[in-house]
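Q: Sequence in, structure out?
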Amino acid sequence: MKIATYNVNGINGRLPVLLRWLEETHPDVVCLQELKAPQEKFPEQAINDAGYNAIWHGQKSWNGVAILARNLEIKELKRNLDGDPEDLHSRYIEAMVNNVIIGCLYLPNGNPAPGPKFEYKLRWFERFTAHAAKLLEYNLPVVLCGDYNVIPTELDAYKPERWVEDALFRPETRLAFQNLMAQGWTDAIRKLYPTETIYTFWDYFRNAYGRDAGLRIDHFLLSPQVSDRLKAAGVDKQVRGWEKTSDHGPVWIELNEA
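A: Exactly. Output:
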């Protein structure tokens, strides 16, 4: 079972890139972030024609998350996190696919920090961590993937000293990520590649992709019930070099069948 996560940075504008990547790689499940499209503007027909069914949680101009599946039923479990009824951002969607709970998230960026956006990021992180704890109580295979907007360690940033004051790398953000991980989650990429330089995001500016000046901010966290099934993981870095592409590359894992 191959599961991928991809911040598309605007699904309609990047649709040719998404469809090409799906055709070339055939993941079984895909979690998308930053749809930047209201609910009714999701390109469902094009996704269906590519062989995928989908559920999505759209929002005009910003945010938006979706789960796609190829020849598999998607049973939606949840959209949005508990704890703040006034939070209308479309940042989380969760489903059962092939007996695995898949949580697709787009964690707030939080810049500029400090400030209200950073405070919102940390509050959202707390709500997500509380929900993750509940998921672990089910004693089921759970995969939480998406754009976490977190640089976990210095290894995950090109020239980390430049990111010290950024919301993605501030001590509060890294501590929140560590607290989440301490519940018992496994970082899939780091399980297989504990010391390698691996990036998932390259800015559009200063030829970041050409210089491989990137960040690792898109993550797969695996519950204990699924971490032993991890067979392979990687980043489809070449997609970042395509025409009119997202500033993120697709990240994927492969799981052995239970």
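The first helix runs from residue 15 to 25.
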